[in-house]
């Protein structure tokens, strides 16, 4: 019998073009920027890197790349993190890119050209016989995500959806998800309830919902019980990718057999560390750094949103 211990992340990979600007340009305006950098990004790839760096379980990723020069750095970043990349090559599409203006006041403006990411299909899913968890996001076509979730569910694989960027979900997809991970804004869109978190979560009627709360930490409604997890006290310089690091580390911990309370704490430590560095994948911490923070770090006060 094959051992089921692999996490499969199915989703997007983008090359992020980041430029610092004095202010976000108004329509028709040109501003002179500085410090141009490129970073491997995309929610799927960020989460795969976070899962692999958390260690303890093999990580595979299904992604689509175009036939251009932007594909290579994305593959290299996954390889360096130890992710086994299953690449669908789309000859007539560009690799996904994101253009990010970072303003001096920390405001940002982002344009994404999904390119090859938009061409992933339901039947691109690889064999799942060694897969314990499938982690997905909403930067891939909704039909593909729904198809992957249904196939995985039928194959006995635990399905996890980070419902970002937010959009309303077909009932068929929501029903096929075992663990939903959202931030507060995404929770409001998906549940149609912008009131208290507890009300919005109840309206979803799902057994396992995790809600991230930025610097306030996270909470989770698991089989009718609430868990609350603080963020760790860090000097945050760039929160880009914090949510992705949280998702990857959470699923790595669940796939190792930890319960939700332990998985939330590990995800919180990894995500808090990610806030201390620039770049999405570049900011994902190594397992040894997470262990150090778990052992010696200070948790900031508990999230109060539920009270
Ligand atoms: P993003 O889309 O920017 O990646 P998100 O909205 O999906 O983020 P958040 O809720 O902002 O996700 O953050 C995810 C987790 O990162 C939080 O639950 C927390 O553990 C950690 N985190 C976020 N901001 C901070 C911070 N300023 N200090 C410490 N930890 C933080």
Largest sheet: 9 strands, mixed
Extract low-pLDDT stretches.
Answer: none
CATH class: Alpha Beta
Radius of gyration: 18 Å
Heterogens? adenosine-5'-triphosphate
- The CATH architecture can be named as 3-Layer(aba) Sandwich
Helix/sheet category: alpha/beta
CATH H level: which superfamily? Ribokinase
The domain tally reads 1
CATH topology: UDP-N-acetylmuramoyl-L-alanine:D-glutamate ligase
Q: Estimate the mean pLDDT confidence.
A: 95
End-to-end separation: 47 Å
- Share of β-strand residues: 25-35%
**Can you list the strand order of the major beta sheet?**
5-4-1-8-9-10-11-12-13
Name the helix and strand elements from N-terminus to C-terminus, one letter apiece.
EEEHEHEEEEHEHEHHEEEHHH
Helix share, percent:
25-40%
Strand segment count: 13
| Contiguous helical run count | 9
Query: What best-fitting shape do the alpha-carbon axes yield?
Result: globular
Written overview of the protein:
There is one protein chain. With 307 residues, this protein is an alpha/beta fold. The chain has a single domain, classed as UDP-N-acetylmuramoyl-L-alanine:D-glutamate ligase. Helix content is 31%, strand content 26%. The protein has helices at 43-54, 71-81, 142-154, 171-175, 184-191, 197-204, 242-255, 260-274, 287-296; strands at 6-10, 14-21, 34-41, 59-66, 84-90, 96-103, 108-113, 131-136, 158-162, 179-183, 208-212, 218-222, 225-229. Strands 5-4-1-8-9-10-11-12-13 form a nine-stranded mixed sheet, with helices on both faces. It has a four-stranded mixed sheet with strand order 3-2-6-7. Helix 7 packs antiparallel against helix 8 (260-274). The termini are far apart. The mean pLDDT is 95. The chain binds adenosine-5'-triphosphate. Adenosine-5'-triphosphate is lined by residues 164, 183, 212-215, 217-218, 231-232, 234, 236, 239-244, 246, 268, 271-272, 275.
